[in-house]
Amino acid sequence: MTDEPAVVVEVGPPADGSGFVEWVRPHLPAMARLAGRLAMGADRDDIVQEALARAWSKRSQYDASRGTASAWLLAITADQARKAARRLRPVGELDYHDGPVSRPDLDARMDVDHALATLSARQRLAVDCYYFADLSVADTAAVMGCSEGTVKSTLSDARARLRTLLEISE
Predict the structure, then answer these.
(1) Contact (Cβ atoms closer than 8 angstroms) between residue 72 and residue 30
(2) pTM for the whole thing?
(3) DSSP code at position 118
(4) SS3 40
(5) CA dist., res. 93 & res. 112, Å (int)
(6) How far is 157 from 163, CA to CA, in rounded Å?
(7) Which of 115, 145, 132 shows the shortest CA–CA distance to 38?
(8) Which of 34, 107, 112, 124 is deepest in the core (most CB within 10 A)?
(9) Which H or E run contains 96?
(10) What are the b/e assignments for 35-73, b being 16+ CB within 10 Å?
(11) 136 to each of 97, 127, 141, how far by Cα in Å?
């Protein structure tokens, strides 16, 4: 008797609604994080809902040999988030305000958000997928439609850029 490792075969999305819900449930937190990062100002829940509707209608096109379910769902989410971000219109400045309030935690976050905004779209997507959506390099590559080496290189370039932008001088 031989102890061969069990081969895990990823199954595509089920055709029934309740099965589909169970299939996507583990991926919902990552989808929400990615939607929130890629389309700030838009309703991330609406983006996730649109992504789920798109995934449901395209479920027959899922191919496990091209990537994991997570990567497939997050690629759809990224696409929907980009569409939502394009639909956003800038909100005008408020005429009246009480003046600046110093909040170190908020100031630091704004610095990071500002630094992230200076990255190229490709670098932002790689950073958002890898660091904020907690995807592996392989899944990030599937979302971005590139090789793992390209993801590693893009992340390295993004970290170098962020390092110089966020460098603290004393």
Answers:
(1) no
(2) 0.64
(3) T
(4) coil
(5) 22
(6) 10
(7) 132
(8) 34
(9) none
(10) bbbbbeebebeebbebbbeebeeebeebeeeebbbbbbb
(11) 43, 11, 8
Q: Do residues 130 and 137 lie in contact, with contact meaning Cβ atoms separated by under 8 Å?
A: yes
Q: Which residues contact 131 (CB under 8 A, 6 or more apart)?
A: none
* Calpha distance 8→76 (Å, rounded): 24
- Model pLDDT for residues 109-156, shown as the tens digit of each residue: 457 778 888 899 899 999 988 988 888 899 899 888 899 999 999 999
Q: Angle at CA 152, nearest 5°, toward 150 and 155?
A: 105
What DSSP element (H or E) covers 88? none
In angstroms, rounded to a whole number, what is the distance separating the alpha carbons of residues 49 and 141? 23
pLDDT tens for 63-85 read: 888 888 888 999 999 989 888 88
Q: What percent of the chain has pLDDT over 70?
A: 78
Say if residues 123 and 20 touch (Cβ distance below 8 Å). Answer: no
Residue 130 per-residue DSSP state = I
Q: CA dihedral defined by 55, 61, 64, 67, rounded to 10 degrees? A: -70
